Amino acid sequence: METVAFNVEELRNDFPILSKKFNGKTLAYLDNAATSQKPRQVIKAICDFYEGYNANIHRGVYEIEEKATMKYERTREATSRFIGAESAEQIIFTRNTTESINLVAKTWGASNIRKGDKIVVSLLEHHSNVVPWQVLAKEKGALLEYINLKEDSTIDLDDFKEKIAGAKLLAITQASNVLGTLVPVKQMTSIAHQEGCTVLVDGAQSAPHMPVSMTDIGCDFFAFSSHKMLGPTGVGVLYGKREILDAMPPYNLGGDMISEVHKWDVTWNELPWKFEAGTSNIADVIAYYHAIEYLQRLGMERVREHEKSLTKYALKRLSEIKGLRYYGPDDIEMRGGIISFTLGDVHPHDIASILSREAIAIRSGYHCAQPLHEELSLGGTARASFYIYNTEEEVDRLAEALNEVRKVFAK
Ligand SMILES: Cc1ncc(COP(=O)(O)O)c(C=O)c1O
Predict the structure, then answer these.
(1) Active-site residue flag, 368
(2) Could you tell me if the CB of 122 is within 6 A of ligand 1?
(3) Does 3.40.640.10 match the CATH number of domain 44-296?
(4) How high is the pLDDT of residue 2?
């Protein structure tokens, strides 16, 4: 695909919300780890579908139905190329990363995890990659173990090597949504496979921000969400190795996921439809294609470079603020565009609501990673997270507003 220049000022024009005023000020949207903003190409695709060819897919044979089916399946092909998968049949559309992980826990997990088996996760995990395994482990009498972090917030690979011995499943994030830490999932997958261990990678914070390749990582499952990568909400992706998906029982049961249904028995549909029961989120999957195309035109290497440079600048600006402490690796090569921080003893919710008056959107709280916050003895953090449309000027606004917060609370 032809690439276009990575010109932030120009591409911002594609995002209608970025020119809107809030409290009379332009929005500085720095909560991209929660969800990204959408370009008009994606928004328009949703309208085009409902206005021009709204029909259910994989069913009829009339013109608009065929068009809808073709566009829906085109997104699957594009998703497969985007993550360097072996084939499009290995791409299953779900609602979000959470559902992708739950699908694996409820199908692969239910039929493969037994009493005494070991499931390994890390302390970095989002609740989506903890709770399904915690519940499964309790149901099956399996053990759940957490890989520790080193002082510099990176994964302790020695601890990993000890814990992975004899494990049945490694479920690990590629990028932390709190510390920004990047995890060497390729190396860890290779070590886990030597132990005969299945590997699920949570790519919710990596796939939107850097090049990822399934054939390179070699993992068995990979999960991520459209809404964090310029696409609509309500679309998640689960990639799986073909032989594993083939052997797995289906997830939801009903229409579309069957091949034949008789009074007393049923045969399952082929991949990937075996895992897509009922009417899909057709409009949003179709629109998601335009998000993928948008990112591919920019080039994922350049997306990563932009975020690296912005994060470096932000770390410098934030470290100049008295009383501010940021978390996560100092080495920019080891972190994504996410910075969680505390400011003296000011409550993170107070920081976020004061910044909101300046039309600066950041997140506060546990960010769905309470075990990590407990490990770091933190009652919560404030978090700024960047994407393709963020600028140094927005980082300056953040730093200035944080200085004001500090002054207000020093009084
Ligand atoms: C690392 C990570 N995993 C999983 C999720 C869950 O994503 P979703 O809410 O789209 O299911 C998130 C969302 O923030 C995340 O950051």
Answers:
(1) yes
(2) no
(3) yes
(4) 80
